[in-house]
């Protein structure tokens, strides 16, 4: 995982939007790479490790899949094998994009270690699964930890569990675990709260509709942005409706990069373009009439007009009472060269 010091690290969250199809997964990787995301992220699990056979779906999953079948049956159809992940890692390498995945068990984390991932993404649902956090952290790779549904104390406990292994390569993602999340629930100010509390990089895992909330998070200093991507929001599956289609995702990434460029530095100073504009838009101290060398300039000899190529109006007290060293024509901006000393 590259340093976010070079800009916001953008993760295209494929999740289970591959619908169990390796071909669809490759198409989504291509879309993310074309959009110039930094990474794609999948989910690594077996239904047997993750849920009971009778576990019900979340409300949003029932709504989005138009089915009340069990969570087990839904997840079973969305599993990818170790061989699939090996193939996807190689495909990501050829596409020039990083492969991330969220392991939902110790076995899944071990699988991803064998596949050769460079970092782990941990789900909000496992923020309090401290044994899993320690198991993953002990592998010594960077961790991106989502904090949806959590409070500050739970985040602190999770970080302590990770740090107990000696691994301090952790970034946090503020998150609202609803699909889609409402803007009024997003509380982006928590990004700064966690950054100040834990002295780590903090980003935003976005489940809202559209780009606006993520763009606001970038403006507030989010170091990582994660957003779901799909080929078609109407495809069957639990997460497609809370995802962006390829064209929208490309605009999403472009918007992030434009915001980063616009943030700039904390220095208040004119840009090079503004300096050129100032020559036209600002005013100068101008001679009201032709004045001969040796004239002592009075306030009645001065007008304030464009262009801004001469002495600025704020320097009028320097001009009034000064003696001209050379003639000046009417309607000509005063410059320092017109005066002695």
Automatic annotation (TrEMBL):
Residues 284-341 form the AFP-like domain. Pfam families: NeuB, SAF. GO terms for molecular function: N-acylneuraminate-9-phosphate synthase activity. GO terms for biological process: carbohydrate biosynthetic process. InterPro entries: AFP_Neu5c_C_sf, Aldolase_TIM, NeuB/NeuA, PseI-like, PseI/NeuA/B-like_N, SAF, SAF_AFP_Neu5Ac, SAF_PseI/NeuA/NeuB. This is N-acetylneuraminate synthase. It comes from Nitratireductor aquibiodomus. The lineage of its organism: Bacteria, Pseudomonadati, Pseudomonadota, Alphaproteobacteria, Hyphomicrobiales.
């Amino acid at each position: 995982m590259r340093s976010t010091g070079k800009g916001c690290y953008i993760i295209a969250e494929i999740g289970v939007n591959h619908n169990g199809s390796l071909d669809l997964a490759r198409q989504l990787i291509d879309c993310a790479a074309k959009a110039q995301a930094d990474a794609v992220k999948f989910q690594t699990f077996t239904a047997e490790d993750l849920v009971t056979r009778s576990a019900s779906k979340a409300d949003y999953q029932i709504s989005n899949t138009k089915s009340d079948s069990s969570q087990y049956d839904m997840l079973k159809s969305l599993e990818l094998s170790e061989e699939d992940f090996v193939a996807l890692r190689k495909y990501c390498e050829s596409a020039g994009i990083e492969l991330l995945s969220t392991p939902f068990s110790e076995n899944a984390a071990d699988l991803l270690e064998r596949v050769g991932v460079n970092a782990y993404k941990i789900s909000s649902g496992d923020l309090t699964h401290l044994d899993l956090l320690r198991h993953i952290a002990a592998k010594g790779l960077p961790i991106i930890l989502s904090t949806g549904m959590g409070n500050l104390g739970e985040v602190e406990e999770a970080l302590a569990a990770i740090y107990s292994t000696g691994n301090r390569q952790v970034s946090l993602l503020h998150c609202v675990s609803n699909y889609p999340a409402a803007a009024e629930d997003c509380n982006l100010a928590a990004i700064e709260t966690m950054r100040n509390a834990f002295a780590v990089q903090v980003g935003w895992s976005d489940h809202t509709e559209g780009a606006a909330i993520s763009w606001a998070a970038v403006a507030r200093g989010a170091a990582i942005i994660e957003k779901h991507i799909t080929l078609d929001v109407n495809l069957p599956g639990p997460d497609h409706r809370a995802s962006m289609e390829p064209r929208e995702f490309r605009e999403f990434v472009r918007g992030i990069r434009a915001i980063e460029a616009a943030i700039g530095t904390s220095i208040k100073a004119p840009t090079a373009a503004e300096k050129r504009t100032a020559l036209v838009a600002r005013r100068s101290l101008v001679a009201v009439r032709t004045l001969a060398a040796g004239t002592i300039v009075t306030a009645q000899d001065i007008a304030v007009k464009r262009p801004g190529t001469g002495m600025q109006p704020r320097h009028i007290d320097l001009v009034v009472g000064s003696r001209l060293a050379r003639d000046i024509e009417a309607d000509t901006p005063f410059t320092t060269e017109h005066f002695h000393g």
